[in-house]
Design a protein that fits this description.
The structure holds 2 protein chains of 2 kinds. By secondary structure, chain A is mainly alpha-helical. Chain A has a domain of about 250 residues. In chain A, strands 1-2 form a two-stranded antiparallel ribbon. In chain A, a hairpin with a 5-residue loop joins strand 1 and strand 2. Chain B is an alpha+beta fold. Helix content of chain B is about 55%, strand content about 20%. Chain B contains 24 helices and 20 strands. In chain B, helix 7 runs antiparallel to helix 9 and helix 9 packs parallel to helix 23. Classes of the chains: A mainly alpha, B alpha+beta. Chains A and B meet through helix 14, helix 15, helix 17 and helix 19 of A and helix 7, helix 8, helix 11, helix 22 and helix 24 of B.
Chain lengths: ~575, ~675
């Protein structure tokens, strides 16, 4: 790795942490209903929204009420987004005159955006009208991210409250996250992006004559406003099919850096916010440290694998970073690798390089990151609660060894919490394994893959991982717009989202009811390097043990075969 | 295993037999991990036998896998049976003492002989010298010496009398002298002895909350690995390989947490067994587990922290009196005093001034015993008149003789009282010679014990009826963290609730009826066997030795139990890494020869790799049985030190050991040509 590249990676991480720390403090205040400087603007707006919807934001909810409100909101969201797409041909702001997408595609897209997955089985520029993109997809980019933060906030309340029955108010969490956190940051982001040349218009597509004399249609649209929240909310659904590899989405090296920062900003900030909310910043720092260790490990693997490149290519005389297939020349290897790592450890899924073309090992890491449950910083909110799920597992497995029944932040981890935490890990894993297992043996599944052999298996595995992990990035190389994949992946996205949220809300409810045991010399310490190491170890081992056989038959064997001189 | 651990041939033989009996699916159902192994064993056996007629070139291989799967289940059963065996042996011994006794039921003035099994709660029986007490009860009249060795193993007889805290009697014990009338407090089948038998047999054993939580985790892991293995088949089909059922079953058994799954119940039973060895009877496994979590220990001062009797520690002579003279007089006056205080004075004089104990009859002395009237004791000897007693009684005695106590003596008395001691004034004739300092002596080593507890994160609170001044002095000397002086049952109860309100778990010991509410309220209530029935009912453990210091050991056993569980769980999960490296390349080496790189152990053939992993998986259960039964060693250190140690041994060790083990087995298999 050259000094310059190391510098780029280091610079990115330092800027990220410097921004995330104050944001974490601010988010903690917002989620705890404390005063902030934004109250002047957002306070009245919040009251108007509550009055219009007939909501009492102060009303405390039990976990069941919280979960019911959340489910109702999200299911209504899926239905309305589905209807909006089916009706887009009749609605305004549709200069290209796009008709309704096929029903299975529309359903897949609706579930995809509501679950913060943003799996796109379509090309944005040739399927969706401006109205659908703005009033449908962008709205859900906001509220799906806010839903994730709400669940994280509820779980934190469960950990901090003493013998309480309630875990907060879903509507309040949703509204405050959107107004205080997401809206101001994406406004700011959109402005920055526009200044760099990201387009924001309602024009029809433009026909241009290229220098070579050919005709090219340039897709237009309100891109910047969607681009900012796409990264910020770790949604990842690009306006264009090429996503952040498209010059109108990601025109300059600065926007590339800016967008990468935006992806990880809130997930990293939330680990610090956690520390503030549990009144022990060390607890937040240890989560950050554990995730950072895994992140750097993954980043290093992707990067070195991409730099090593494909020996088959080197053999024919091309030297240096040979694995440029599927990468933007503008970004090069280091920024493509960094982006790939960032986008998959978070549940973002926006891409600036095509993961299908990464080296097998370089492509396995993004897949593993998703399979680990999107807990390495992860999505907005989802990352924190997935990480806390692993904290509960770690505390339970390892904590017993100090001779006390396991407890986290003074809360005893007992049968019920264990059942729910295990479900939260089990459900997405089951969805990935069973979904891809089914797809590998039925013709409807295998006919979509573009490459035979282990690479095809990787493509299928990646698709179901991405959907179940609510990531939304695609390995490409697989035709996902088929009836089978649209429905199977929609189901995977739904299960992967709510099959984790509901058990964790139950954990929150059960923890809130418990007493808090005071910490002492005999208490298992959940701060410090040892715990960070244990936490990342448990995440890796549980993830690796679950998916090793599948990965061995996919990317691992492919990499080995590539070394042996056979590519797919 | 050494003979010391009490595992004789009979128990081992019984355990081997039990391992087969426990194959019954209805019993095995309680252990989900082993139940899955059983199902896989059955399936593998079926496919192996079915293949006999066919091509069957893998017959020997499949058969070996099937056999080892059966052995895995048997090993787990054996571990459980072995743990139960010790308890069973003890229960049998108890049962022998409970021969059919005849009860003398009182009906008015007459007694009626009925069988003990016909007695009901509330019946009153007469028990005379030589009779067995027919059931648990409360002495309502009389006093008797009782041989309780059947229950406690302690051969010295104990006194049982009506009223007070020594009124409870246990069925199956024997009255040695005198007689008592006993009101029966338990119906047949519910007596202490019955409960004890069923507890040690494990018949009533229910899963403890932590065991339930751990089982859920193990089920979760089992399902995850079930999915990983089941979906491997379609991936394999896609990749152009067909995996045989026995091979998939082998992989599955290797991955699911069989080690901890097989040993979990043995660990729990062994924990109760370790308590039993220390003569503590836990009413439930839950209580043992909770003991590990205890954050506050409430300890009675008397008997736990102090020796229980005041001891002479110092002679403070009056002005003009030599210490030797005071010691001599004090010793003379105490020669016939058989109370522990009196003995301690004699010993102190001997130790400090080398004054030999004298035979009171030989020197012609006349002992004046303590009387309620004078409130003094003493000795008359060759015209000398020596008295000792509390200050006011001695002052009155001197006044009668027309003398007065020196102000220095008075000052010394007050000083001693302030320090929490008891002053005894010694007078000879008209003169007060000085003061004997009787002190509550803190038990040797107890301060270090409390420091240990503090390092373990456990707070100690001394409970005493003394005034706050005295209590504070003793508390400081003993090194407890806090004390409750002038303790009443209500104050105790309130203190427990306070600690619990702050999220602490509280353990305490008690024996009296007035302790019952506090025992019931505390999370771990250890009742002394010498205590009342009410206390025993209220607590969740009974200490048969009636030794209050044992609370500390109970906490350690609880912690050890949890640590053993955690260590073996970690070990079990860490083991899987190596097993993957053994099996995955073996499964697919034919389709993808490149995967041979993953065979980092260099196992001879795919078959030997799979077999080695399965055999290792089975053998590790049996290898860890001693550890499960003994528990991993516990040291009273802070959580972090313990954690680091255990992670190193069971986490890192768990990663490395199977690599070595599997390789060794592979080498042996290759030599024996078994694969």
């Amino acid at each position: 790795m050259s000094g310059n590249e190391l510098l780029q990676l280091g610079f990115y991480l330092v800027v990220l942490v410097l921004l995330a720390i104050p944001l974490g403090r601010y988010m903690a205040k917002v989620l705890q209903g404390e005063k902030t400087f934004m109250d002047v603007v957002m306070g009245p707006l919040e009251r108007i929204i509550y009055r219009a919807c007939g909501i009492d934001g102060q009303q405390e909810m039990t976990w069941r009420e919280y979960a019911a409100s959340l489910l109702a909101f999200n299911i209504l969201g899926i239905i309305s987004l589905l209807l909006l797409q089916l009706a887009q041909g009749l609605l305004p702001l549709n200069p290209q005159g796009f008709g309704a997408p096929r029903w299975d595609l529309a359903l897949n897209t609706a579930v995809s955006f509501v679950t913060n997955t943003n799996w796109q089985a379509y090309s944005g520029e040739s399927t969706m009208s401006y109205l659908t993109q703005m009033a449908g997809l962008t709205v859900h980019n906001f509220v799906s991210a806010a839903t994730g933060v709400a669940v994280a906030a509820a779980l934190i309340r469960g950990l901090t409250r003493r013998q309480a029955n309630s875990i907060g108010n879903f509507w309040s969490d949703l509204t405050r996250t959107t107004l205080w956190i997401l809206l101001p940051l994406s406004l700011l982001g959109a402005l920055v992006l526009v200044s760099q040349g990201v387009i924001q218009n309602f024009s029809p597509y433009v026909n241009v004559h290229t220098l070579q004399g050919a005709n090219q249609t340039l897709a237009m649209g309100p891109v910047a406003s969607q681009e900012a929240i796409k990264e910020l909310g770790t949604n990842g659904g690009g306006f264009f099919n090429a996503n952040s590899a498209h010059p109108f989405e990601n025109p300059t090296p600065f926007t590339n850096l800016f967008e990468m920062l935006y992806i990880l900003l809130i997930p990293v900030g939330l680990t610090f916010a956690f520390g503030h909310m549990v009144k022990d910043t060390k607890q937040g720092r240890v989560l950050f440290a554990a995730a950072l260790v895994l992140f750097v490990l993954m980043l290093g693997t992707v990067y070195s694998s991409e730099i090593a490149g494909n020996p088959l290519v080197s053999k024919i005389g091309i030297r240096g970073a040979s694995a440029m297939e599927g990468k933007e020349v503008r970004f090069g290897v280091v920024n493509s690798a960094l982006w790939a790592a960032i986008t998959t450890v978070t549940s973002c899924g926006a891409v600036n390089a095509m993961h299908d073309s990464l080296t097998p090992l370089g492509g396995m890491i993004p897949m593993l990151a998703i399979m680990l449950g999107e807990c390495v910083f992860g999505g907005v909110g989802t990352g924190l609660y997935s990480l806390l799920t692993f904290v509960i597992l770690t505390v339970f497995i390892v904590g017993l060894m100090v001779g006390r029944t396991p407890e986290y932040l003074g809360k005893k981890i007992e049968g019920f919490e264990m059942k729910m935490a295990v479900l939260a890990v089990l459900i997405p894993s089951a969805s990935i394994l069973l979904g891809s297992g089914l797809a590998t043996v039925i013709p409807a599944g295998t006919s979509s893959i573009a490459n035979p052999g282990p690479h095809g298996l990787s493509e299928i595995l990646y698709a179901f991982s991405s959907a179940s992990g609510n990531n939304g990035s695609a390995f490409a190389g697989i035709n996902a717009n088929t009836l089978f994949y649209n429905l199977a992946l929609a189901l995977a996205m739904f299960i992967g989202r709510f099959g984790v949220i509901i058990p964790l809300l139950a954990v929150a409810g059960s923890l809130a009811k418990k007493k808090i045991a005071p910490a002492g010399a005999g208490t298992f310490e959940t701060t410090g390097g040892l715990f960070a190491g244990l936490l990342s170890g448990v995440i890796l081992i549980v993830g690796a043990l679950t998916f090793f056989p599948a990965l061995a038959l996919g990317p691992i064997v492919e990499q080995l075969m590539m070394w042996a001189g056979k590519a797919f | 295993m050494s003979k010391k651990s009490g595992l004789d041939r009979a128990i081992l033989g019984q355990a081997v037999k039990e391992s087969f009996v426990k194959l019954d699916p209805r019993a095995l159902w309680r252990n989900p991990v082993m139940f899955v192994v059983l199902i896989l064993a059955v399936i593998t056996t079926y496919f192996t036998i079915r293949a006999v007629g066919g091509a069957g070139k893998n017959f020997w291989f499949d058969l070996q896998i099937a056999l080892w799967l059966w052995i895995t289940v048997l090993f787990a059963n054996f571990a459980e049976a072995l743990a139960e065996g010790r308890g069973k042996a003890q229960a049998d011994a108890l049962r022998k003492t409970r021969s059919e006794t005849v009860a003398k039921k009182l009906a008015g003035e007459k007694t009626e002989k009925i069988s003990a099994s016909q007695l009901r709660k509330g019946d009153v029986v007469l028990v005379e010298a030589g009779d067995f007490i027919p059931g648990d009860g409360e002495v309502i009249e009389g006093i008797a010496s009782v041989d309780e060795s059947a229950v406690t193993g302690e051969s010295a007889p104990v006194i049982r009398e009506s009223g007070g805290d020594r009124s409870s009697v246990t069925g199956g014990t024997r009255v040695l002298s005198d007689w008592i009338k006993v009101q029966i407090t338990a119906n047949p089948g519910e007596t202490f002895l019955d409960r004890m038998i069923s507890l040690v047999e494990g018949a009533k054993r229910q899963k403890t909350p932590n065991e339930v939580a751990l089982t859920i985790l193990l089920i979760g892991l089992t399902i995850i690995f079930l999915l990983a293995v089941v979906t491997l088949e379609p991936y394999a089909i896609y990749s152009g390989t067909i995996l045989s059922i026995p091979v998939l079953a082998a992989l599955m058994v290797c991955l699911i947490p069989t080690t901890i799954g097989g040993l979990l119940s043995a660990i729990g039973i062994a924990g109760m067994d370790r308590l039993l060895k220390r003569n503590v009877l836990a009413m439930s496994g839950r209580a043992v587990e909770v003991a590990g979590d205890v954050g506050v220990l409430l300890l009675d001062k008397t008997g736990t922290i102090t020796l229980g009797n005041r001891m002479a520690t110092e002679f403070v002579p009056a002005p003009g009196v030599s210490p030797e003279r005071l010691a001599d007089a004090a010793q003379l006056s105490s020669l016939a005093d058989e109370t522990p205080e009196g003995r301690s004075i004699v010993i102190l004089a001997k130790e400090e001034f080398n004054l030999r104990e004298r035979d009171i009859a030989a020197i012609g002395a006349k002992f004046i015993p303590f009387s309620a009237h004078t409130r003094m004791s003493g000795v008359d000897l060759q015209g000398r008149e020596i008295r000792k007693g509390a200050m006011d009684s001695v002052a009155r005695y001197l006044q009668e003789k027309g003398s007065e106590m020196a102000p220095e003596v008075k000052a010394a008395v007050e000083d001693i009282a302030k320090k929490g001691g008891t002053p005894l004034v010694v007078a000879e004739g008209k003169q007060a010679l000085g003061v004997i300092y009787l002190k509550d002596v803190v038990k040797g080593g107890i301060k270090e014990r409390f420091a240990q507890l503090r390092r373990m994160g456990i707070k100690t609170v001394m409970i005493t009826g003394d005034n706050p001044l005295t209590a504070a002095a003793i508390a400081a000397e003993a090194g407890v963290d806090d004390f409750l002086a002038e303790a009443t049952p209500e104050a105790k109860l309130k203190l427990i609730r306070e600690y619990q309100g702050n999220g602490n778990l509280v353990a305490m010991t008690g024996d009296g009826t007035n302790d019952a509410p506090a025992l019931a309220q505390s999370d771990v209530g250890v009742a002394m066997n010498s205590g009342t029935q009410a206390a025993k009912e209220a607590g969740n453990m009974v200490d048969l030795d009636s030794n209050p210091t044992k609370l500390i050991e109970i906490v350690e056993i609880g912690k050890q139990l949890l640590m053993t569980r955690g260590a073996l769980t970690t070990f079990s999960i860490a083991n899987d890494v190596a097993k993957y490296f053994a099996i995955i390349p073996a499964l697919f080496i034919v389709t993808y020869p490149q995967l041979g790189v993953l065979n980092i152990m260099g196992l001879a053939t795919p078959q030997s790799a799979i077999l080695s992993a399965v055999i290792f998986n089975a053998l590790i259960i049996i290898a860890l049985v001693p550890l499960a039964l003994r528990g991993i060693p516990y040291r009273p250190l802070g959580a972090n030190v313990i954690l680091r140690r255990n992670i190193l041994i069971y986490g890192v060790g768990g990663l490395i050991v199977p690599f070595i083990g599997i390789k060794l087995i592979d080498m042996i298999l290759t030599v024996l040509r078994l694969s």
